[in-house]
Amino acid sequence: MRVLAVFLTLLAALPAQADWLRLRGTHTELLTDAGEKEGRRALSRLEQIRAILPAAGDDGGRELRVVLFDSEKEFREYARSESTSGLYQSGLERDYIVTYAGGELPRVVTHEFVHFLLNQTPAPLPRWFEEGTAELYSNAQINGKRVRIGKEIEPHMNLLLARPWLTATQLAAERPAVSADQEQAESMFYAESWALMHMLNLSPNYRDHLPQFVTLLAQGTDASEAFRGAFGRDFEKALAELPSYLRRIRSVQLGTPPPAPFLAAKSELLSDVDAMLLRGDVALRRGLAEQARTFFEQAAREHPESAAAEAGLGMLALTQNRPGDARRYLERAMQLDAKDATILFEYALLERDAGAGTERVRELLEKVVALNPNFGEAQLLLGVRATDDRRYDAAVTYLRDAARLLPRQSYVWHALAYAQQKLGHYPEALEAAQRAVRTASTDEQEHMAEALRDALRDQVLGKAAR
Ligand SMILES: [Zn+2]
Question: FRET partner for 341 with CA separation of 20 to 30 A, picked from 4, 204, 265, 464?
């Protein structure tokens, strides 16, 4: 009795939990405890940005989950850096944006959303391009009459006026290499990237050549060469022109008609257990194993029938290299819910690693893509499996889907090129191999892709000569 009394006292001391809501947009779900109004505002903003961003076009159907915390304090439990106000992270079945409500929300969520959209484009873009574009669109002004971009971002401008700039070499690097204050250098990196993308997008001297720059990058041209080719001057020269451009900086009205506000359908109320699992999911993505465990265990204890709780514990076990536990949890999760693509996918990998027959693994993966055709990694594995079985037509079908969903992964393009080569489709194979070279992120990937590309060039040329 005494224990119960203590427990009830503790419960009374807890602050009332706000409801979590789910709103749905295009390939996007937004989950929030910040209230319906704030959720709708953020979702409408994303849909409008999708409509005005020229690079966006088709997002390949990849799913996005936006988690919008009401409390900055709670958000900080998942963010490592003090200065971060939003996070973008790519995942297996979907990508994630995590942020919190408040005055800066439209700008922050737009910045992260631009990363999501750019991540669906095949061209590997320099970091200054990505961060600069994300900043440029972050404060886009969209109302019923017009769309304007390029309004001055004061903190960036103040920094640019007050501090020494990064050199062209530092800006072109993935991370600005500086001896002194790294945080200061990062802030300058954002400010300078914003200013540069402002000029490249909006200055009459540059804007018409920007599409060509992107095309050259997509063709695999080295960034500094592509810059010179598109804009007719070196990167260093453009940077040197930036200070005088900034003196007359203006926002610009875009020719695109203003997109209508997005009206999401009625929100759904998340159950308590789903809200708990959502936090566990975010913690897991952020590599915070202990927090994730707390949420998943509590959910499993209070709701033994929850497949997602068991699945969460299974995923956690996977990240901690405990395959036996993972299998137990995932099997239980599948008994409770046989229709979750991620659970099935992870289980298929466990089966594969445990030496299950290829038929068994294929069967599981086919169920995954039947449940979610936009599950890129599953399409890839099915394509590789079909290649191993010499079913090249089937392989190409799977791998085309995989390449659409994972356009920046060199190994996907490599697998596609190989299957097309086996079918004797040399020109298509050569194109895919070239993309594998462009998207390579390691030396090994690059060497493998180059070898395949060279072999295909010989085959294409050989065929033409015959
Ligand atoms: Zn960013």
Answer: 265
